[in-house]
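Quick entry between incubations.
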Amino acid sequence: MDEMIYLDHAATTPLDPRVLEAMTPYFSQVFGNPSSVYRVAREARKALDEARQTVADILHASPQEVVFTSGGTEGDNLAIKGVALAMARQGKGRHIITGQIEHHAVLHACESLEAAGFEVTYLPVDDDGLLHPQTLEEAIRPDTVLVSIMYANNEVGTIEPIVDLAGIAHAHGVYFHTDAVQAAGFLSLDVEELGVDLLSISAHKFYGPKGVGMLYVRRGVPLLPLIEGGAQERRRRAGTENVPGIVGLATALRLVQEERDSLSAHCAHLRDRLIEGLLGAIPFARLNGHRTQRLPNNVNLCFEFVEGESVLLKLDQLGICASSGSACTSGALEPSHVLRAMGVPPEVALGSLRLTVGRMNTSEQIERVLSVLPGIIEELRRMSPLYLERVRG
Ligand code: PLP
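Done. Structure below.
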């Protein structure tokens, strides 16, 4: 058996053993419900309060502005539907702006609001996946209530100019949400510097547990809860708190933010070697996403004349875990909506491969990928009449 080489950190990351250690007591000894009054519950409440403070400090926010959720999908839904519905209830506008390359958690939340009578504008991006501030400026209307633009894209890694975009929204009195799910492991989450009103993250993308996330909601931003019941999370998200998960999220966020510089440098080194090595060895290949305004761990390439899914299967046989486009859509052989919005032709977009590196990857692993991937592409291309026609002239 080949050693597993995990290159799909944008899909999920392994749990950091230090995070597991911090979580463990809250599964067993400290099992109390934080809403109860006796000691084992008070201890759970204390852990919850400390986790909230840790997250608030990292965000430069106050603990009351931190809402724990079940992950990125819920955070995105709560931000978008929560603000839209609260504003509609106040008789404010019903227009929302988002981007064409957002994650489906945002896009589908917006589509469901459209079905409920809201209007949504989906902004285009350029060939690198960048959303230009001017494009947003032109789309804002008097009835716009919310703008939601991702901090960094999950497929191609392009980092959006959030400070400028949020500034434009605010100049028009419009709230601004950012999906920071992919950014949280690498970029600053200081909500004062970013100037955002809502920001969602998910622990399993930065070496924390799955099924737990956080939505930052700036004080004063109107928000209707999606999940109703008890008074938890200041009535913005009912349900007994996932104490071990929340402790895990806070610990993972603290560690990844403390170690951000070294992790970014490590990942960027491996990323650049992969990009350079693959583009140098494989003809008819291109890099998707911005070359420099890019997450340090993301490589996304298109190989003409092959299907990304076939490449994945071949890599899997060698123990290499990768993704074609977004993990959330893999299985469906449709070209990625992100690559399509960036102007990549559908037949080329089908040949996309995403490799996202992480903490545990080594240069040796990267060299191993560089030694096998060109051969895999060539082997698959030899089955393509279009390719053979092209190379034979
Ligand atoms: N937003 C982005 C940009 C993502 O990459 C993902 C996960 O792939 C999500 C949201 C959804 O997060 P979760 O898996 O925690 O629901």
